[in-house]
């Protein structure tokens, strides 16, 4: 019953909430479809953390996506030991890069008072979920060898069975607990999309190619030692 709920029911609960919630947010507050950048409050630490986070994450997602689309090719690739080592090492390095970037972003958000002031409770929930996801992925890579092979052999068929509305829980029953957490946490991230900054992933930034640019100027009133003002044109 435990496995049936978490792996056969919970994924659909997350997907339904994500779809309905995203549609409702777009209909009622479409201008909030943004990552709500805090770059103007502090940019140096953001730059290094963001670069490591985004490049590492894109690499990890690319590896997962390729394995999801062509799992047979991944299993064939891994039949040669040297290619298997290359696959595992590359994935591990990308995961470490992602974890390093995320930790830098969390430290920045917690250590800068101006950024803490604009951090919402949902921001903290999202950062916690992201940290769990990346940490469990790194943990799996360290303590459970050849993850790319059993991802292609067990996790991918399970995910396809969910998409086909025929969830086969038996495919993930015998995977390690940390992998169970990794999978369920991924569904939880889907659920959080309409309630957090993750919603900006639903917007393709094509209009940015031709929209007028924004100039931000920082001015300080001569007659007042107060905070800086932002003038946008």
UniProtKB/TrEMBL annotation:
Task: Note the topology in the membrane.
Answer: Multi-pass membrane protein
Concerning InterPro entries, the annotation shows: Heme-iron_electron_transfer (IPR051936), NarG-like_domain (IPR023234), NarG-like_sf (IPR036197), Nitrate_red_gam (IPR003816)
Gene Ontology terms, MF aspect: electron transfer activity; heme binding; metal ion binding; nitrate reductase activity
**Where in the cell is the protein located?**
Cell membrane
Record's superkingdom?
Answer: Bacteria
Q: Which Gene3D superfamilies match?
A: Transmembrane di-heme cytochromes, Chain C
The residues the record assigns to binding heme b are: 54, 64, 182, 200
Q: Can you tell me where the transmembrane regions are? A: 6-26, 46-70, 90-110, 122-142, 186-210
A single Gene Ontology CC annotation of this entry is:
plasma membrane
Q: Pfam families under this entry?
A: Nitrate_red_gam
Give start-end ranges for the coiled-coil region(s). none
Question: What residue stretches are annotated with the NarG-like domain?
Answer: 3-218
Q: Which GO terms describe its biological process?
A: anaerobic electron transport chain; nitrate assimilation
The record's section on PANTHER family has: NITRATE REDUCTASE PRIVATE CHAPERONE, REDOX ENZYME MATURATION PROTEIN REMP FAMILY, RESPIRATORY NITRATE REDUCTASE 1 GAMMA CHAIN
* Protein's recorded name: NarG-like domain-containing protein
């Amino acid at each position: 019953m435990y496995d049936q709920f978490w792996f056969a029911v919970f994924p659909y609960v997350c997907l339904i909430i994500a779809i309905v919630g995203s549609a409702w947010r777009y209909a009622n507050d479409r201008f909030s479809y943004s990552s709500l950048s805090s770059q103007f409050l502090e940019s140096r630490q953001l730059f290094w953390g963001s670069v490591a986070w985004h490049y590492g994450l894109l690499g990890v997602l690319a590896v997962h996506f390729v394995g999801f689309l062509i799992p047979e090719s991944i299993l064939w690739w891994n039949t040669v030991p040297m290619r298997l080592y290359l696959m595992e090492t590359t994935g591990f390095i990308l995961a470490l890069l992602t974890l390093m970037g995320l930790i830098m972003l969390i430290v920045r958000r917690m250590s800068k008072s101006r950024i803490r002031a604009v951090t919402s409770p949902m921001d903290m929930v999202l950062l916690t979920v992201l940290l769990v996801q990346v940490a469990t992925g790194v943990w799996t890579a360290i303590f459970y060898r050849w993850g790319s092979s059993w991802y292609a052999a067990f996790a991918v068929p399970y995910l396809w069975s969910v998409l086909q509305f025929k969830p086969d829980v038996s495919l993930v029953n015998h995977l390690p607990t940390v992998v169970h957490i990794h999978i369920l946490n991924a569904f939880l991230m889907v659920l959080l999309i309409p309630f957090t900054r993750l919603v900006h992933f639903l917007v393709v930034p094509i209009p940015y190619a031709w929209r007028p640019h924004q100039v931000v100027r920082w001015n300080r009133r001569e007659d007042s030692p107060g905070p800086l003002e932002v003038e946008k044109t």
